[in-house]
Specification:
Strand order of the largest sheet: 1-7-6-2-5-4-3
Shape: globular
Order of helices and strands: EHEHEEHHEEE
Structural class: alpha/beta
Strand content: 25-35%
Helix content: 25-40%
Radius of gyration: 14 Å
Largest sheet: 7 strands, mixed
Number of strands: 7
Oligomer: single chain
């Protein structure tokens, strides 16, 4: 599936489309260059799920936890991770097995730890505010 947006105001609609398309999936891998809008899109997805918490990048903590009406959302940012062991040390596999939403930025840093099934979300910039969002269910 491909979603094209021309302005940030369209993110809620894009987030709703993503959640509908990947309705049974709870693990999402977000790929894209620095500044592609991964965290901003995750914030919109969390809002679509009903979370009222402030969503921010867990660049230094590696994982942030948010509540939403049906449970928990775990938001990972592995940009600064050095190896798989750092992810394992924070209990990454347990998070993945929890059945809760897991949104993972920079997943290529922990490629050997990916589960069998997930939604891969690739963001690319297009113009000043535009984005192309490609979603692949694996």
């Amino acid at each position: 599936m491909e979603i094209r947006i021309s302005h940030e105001d369209e993110l809620p609609s894009a987030a709703a489309r993503l959640l509908t398309h990947a309705s049974n999936e709870r693990i999402f891998l977000f790929e894209g260059e620095m500044g592609a809008g991964k965290t901003t899109f995750i914030k919109s997805i969390c809002q679509q799920l009903g979370s009222e918490e402030s969503v921010s990048s867990p660049t230094y903590s590696l994982v942030n936890e948010y509540d939403y009406p049906a449970g928990k959302i775990y938001h990972f940012d592995f940009f600064r991770i050095n190896n798989d062991n750092e992810a394992l040390d924070i209990g990454f596999e347990e998070y993945l097995a929890s059945g809760h939403y897991c949104f993972i930025e920079w997943p290529e840093k922990v490629r050997r730890l990916w589960p069998l099934h997930y939604a891969k979300v690739r963001l690319k910039t297009e113009g000043n505010e535009g984005r192309i969002i490609n979603v692949q269910l694996v």
